[in-house]
Amino acid sequence: MDRFFSHFILRLDAKGRVSVPASFRAVLSRDGAGADGLFCYPALDRPAVEAGGRSLMAEIEALMERFPPFSEEREQFATALYATSEILKMDGEGRVTLSDQLKDHAGILDAVAFVGLGHKFQIWAPDRFSARLSEATGKMRALKKRLGSERAATPQGARE
Predict the structure, then answer these.
(1) DSSP string, 41-91
(2) CA gap 53, 32 in Å, rounded
(3) Rg (CA), the chain
(4) Does pTM surpass 0.90?
(5) pLDDT, tens digit (0-9, with 9 covering 90-100), for 12-39
(6) Sign, Cα dihedral of 7, 117, 134, 147
(7) What is the pLDDT of residues 112-123, one digit of tens each?
(8) Which of 37, 39, 41, 36 is nearest to 83 (CA)?
(9) What's the CA gap between 28 and 137, in Å, rounded?
(10) CB hemisphere CA count around 8 (13 angstroms)
């Protein structure tokens, strides 16, 4: 698979390192990110760290190209993402060391949750991820119920 799936709770070691889950390392390797390292930045809208490899960087570049060169919006976008981004090098055992800035943003103390989101993953403080997962699950249950109600209200055989 070329996607990040599942979630993993792992502890930081005495030196502040954490192992990137093997399945995530495999996706990064296929993405060509092994030599470059792990691209990370503080999430703009939640207390988490966004992470990925070359594909994530390419996606950000594509988003940035939507704005005219030298525009204020492009400058703000670049500042918000690139000025806070870091490339974390993985050691031979697949461990990375999160900077104090990234840990502070996410509220990470002694453990992290690696959370697969398909094309990228996030790094959370486990308790904050647990709350986020509960919130997302509740919203998706409500959406499923609403969509089921809309489908039931549509007469059989009706076409749009």
Answers:
(1) EE-SSSSSEEEE-HHHHHHHHHHHTTSPTT-HHHHHHHHHHHTT-EEEPP-
(2) 7
(3) 19
(4) no
(5) 999 999 999 999 999 999 987 766 789 9
(6) negative
(7) 999 999 999 999
(8) 41
(9) 27
(10) 16
